[in-house]
Amino acid sequence: MRPDRGHDLNSDIHLPVFDESGSYTVGMTVTASSSASHHLLCLPGILETATGFHAFSDQAKNAFATYALDFSGRGLSEHLPIRSDYRMSRCLKEAFFAYNFLLGSIKSVENKKRHIHLVGNSMGGLIAIFLALSKPSYLRSIVINDVGCVLPWSGLMSLYGALGRSSFFPGRLSH
């Protein structure tokens, strides 16, 4: 529980993440009212933490349950073992674990009108796009901030190719 925040529900969640090197936990700060019917998954940029979303979640607390993720090595999350890579593909995997956690929470609630909204800043915005493309269930909206208006095509193709070769990347979308 976070005593410094005065809302109905304030807690820190530690999600287990499993990969080739074992397991570790990533943290999420939750700020919500018990009456919130929408869930915001907030994804920070590469050099940011969940605390960057505190003012935002304070303003949205009556309408939204806000889950602000800390990627590995930052904020509430564990540091990785020596020789582990803090790469964007790992952050994407951690975001998938957080998204799946929210999907599980929503499915277990009787009120079927619950929805997820993605909010991503910088690298978190790029990750939000990948989540939206591969996990559209219950997704209501996506907001991206500070993702360059002009990105070099070669850089995006290189990034997409690297993510596509990652072992955890979701399979091709079926139509």
Topology:
Elements: E1 9-19, E2 22-32, E3 38-43, H1 54-60, E4 64-70, H2 88-107, E5 115-121, H3 123-134, E6 139-145, H4 153-165
Parallel strand pairs: 3-4, 3-5, 5-6
Antiparallel strand pairs: 1-2, 2-4
Helix pairs in contact: 2-3
What does this structure look like?
- This protein has 4 helices and 6 strands, in the order βββαβαβαβα.
- The chain has helices at residues 54-60, 88-107, 123-134, 153-165; strands spanning 9-19, 22-32, 38-43, 64-70, 115-121, 139-145.
- A 6-stranded mixed sheet has the order 1-2-4-3-5-6.
- Strand 3, helix 1 and strand 4 (64-70) form a beta-alpha-beta unit.
- Helix 2 packs across helix 3 (123-134).
- The N and C termini lie far apart (43 Å).
The fraction of residues assigned to DSSP E strands is 25-35%
Q: What is the total tally of β strands?
A: 6
Q: Quick one: biggest sheet?
A: 6 strands, mixed
Q: Low-confidence runs (pLDDT<50, min 5 residues)?
A: 1-8, 167-175
Determine the mean pLDDT.
79
- Given helix and strand content, the structural type is alpha/beta
Radius of gyration: 16 Å
Secondary structure: helix percent: 25-40%
| CA(first)-CA(last) distance | 43 Å
Elements, N to C (H/E):
EEEHEHEHEH
